Description:
Blueprint: H1 4-14, E1 23-29, E2 32-37, E3 48-51, E4 57-58, E5 64-66, E6 71-79, E7 83-93, E8 98-100, E9 120-124, E10 129-133, E11 136-139, E12 145-147, E13 152-158, E14 171-184, E15 187-197, E16 199-202, E17 211-212, E18 217-221, E19 231-238, H2 244-248, E20 265-266, E21 283-289, E22 292-298, E23 305-312, E24 315-320, E25 336-337, E26 340-344, E27 355-361, E28 369-374, E29 379-383, E30 395-397, E31 405-407, E32 413-421, E33 426-431, E34 435-437, E35 444-452, E36 458-465
Parallel strand pairs: 30-36
Antiparallel strand pairs: 1-2, 2-5, 3-4, 3-6, 6-7, 7-8, 9-10, 11-19, 12-18, 13-14, 13-17, 14-15, 15-19, 16-18, 19-20, 21-22, 22-27, 23-24, 23-28, 25-26, 26-27, 28-29, 31-34, 32-33, 32-35, 35-36
Amino acid sequence: MKLLPYLCCLLAFSTLFGQEVNFTAIAVSGRSIQFFDASSSEIEITSWNWTFGDGSTATEQNPVHEFQSDGTFTVCLTINQVLKTCKENVFHIIENRLRIQFDDTIWPNGDITKLSSPFGPRIKDSESRYDFHRGIDIPGNIGDPIVNIADGIVRQAAVEGDPENNFSSTVVVIEHQMDTPILFQGILISKYFSISSHLNSIAAGIEPGVPIKKGQLFGTIGESGETNFPLNHFEIRLVVICSRESQRNGGCSQSTPFAEPTDPHVNPLLFLDYKAFNKDALTYEVVDENPLTIKVISDRPELDFNELLVSKDSEITKINFDERSGIDMNDIDNPEFNGVLIAPSRYTSSGGENYEITFTLLDLDDFDQIQVKDIWGQTTTVDIEPEIPEEKSFILPYPNPTQDVLNFNDAELSGTYWVFDTSGQLVLKGNLASEINLEQLASGLYYLKLKTKPEGKLRFYKILKE
Length: 466
């Protein structure tokens, strides 16, 4: 009988085997953040208990939580009321967005102010042509040291010309496990690879299968491969080393969680610490309207621009560098795709220019809304809301001004509609189907703005709700 208490405890303890608590998050909008349970367990998980570090809690598996202020919050998850994990200094709410520290990393060499090429579209300096750059180039002097960004295992270390080297230059590939998973292409991922190429030399003892510590020297800067100046071409690839091209051509021996060939490259700034330069400097301007031309600009060190969204009527044009939306993956180095022409400005290590990239939407001459986003989802937005004409003769009485619902039988009308009050304040906006519901508006006089198709000309109506 005396053994029973110990047997009880032993049984309780055995349920902990094969279980690990982990979680991540993505920004939804503003300070609203969706958390994702990434726990693993050999037994069924039946309960989740979250604390968000601001006094709030939740019991859903993947809750959405809205923080009321900026800050760094300690978030904890308990599963099955037994196992608990807390993450400190991981989830940063800054200026209405979420910044995540996926792993504890350092810069491999140099710093962000010395980059000669950013991630994404660029003008390739060695050939003066456009290409989609799937890493960042950190220049230096031949022989400068390159160190490991985080604890890991060497997966490849090969010199230029080695028959076993499937890269075009001297390269070191290191596998890492993230402290916090990343959501990529709809999959929670915990493994990534850091890749440094164009090396001059590889340090002694750096061989496949060897563990390597954060900060450990593994090679030096060089000019091996196709480059005309010393640099470290640095990449982050998620889950697999193989590029999309290699996966598609059957040259990848690694297993992959993706259902089809997928480009595993992401902007390395998602993993490298650049907080000192993250000033939220991302802006843009409309430089032409025929066709619509948009220039995105940021301060020189802040190279985290990731997405452009342009809406016109009910159509949305999206270009996303990390997801490769709006990029022709079968001809990735072609700057024109689906009616969008991408023109990056030259970016060099001289420090004499800021980051600029121009998008020409060849089929558009105006817009309803433009958004630009960084890699963390911070959004800069502008809406076009033309003012009511001062000349009232342009404003027509609507046929059914007293109704809560405006019905349309005009085949020429389509797209977005705007409703203004008499002071010019926008009170209602939407995409036109066959009717507009004014039920939520108070009685009074309003102005309705519509567009005709296909010309896109403005048409204004005066409506009276009684």
